[in-house]
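@channel sequence for tomorrow's demo:
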Amino acid sequence: MGVNFAIRFALIGLGKSSISVMVGVMEVIVRSISTHFLVSNLGFLGMTFPNPLCWLTSTVFVALLYPQMMKKADLLKNKGSS
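structure tokens (generated this afternoon):
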């Protein structure tokens, strides 16, 4: 979860706060869908899985976006210095 927050705040620092909002919306969607399906199939045990599943999916999502955003930031920095 710390990796998730570090990457999200780095993206916000790069001026990409919309990505953080999209990740937040995605977390709500993943929690809702996973809760619906896991609780109906596993009962009370199913309530223990939605949060870790949500953190995992959001961490993977921001980790996939981070290199692209850093590449764009480097391009903008190099364009501005030349």
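heads up for whoever presents: Residues 2-81 form one domain.
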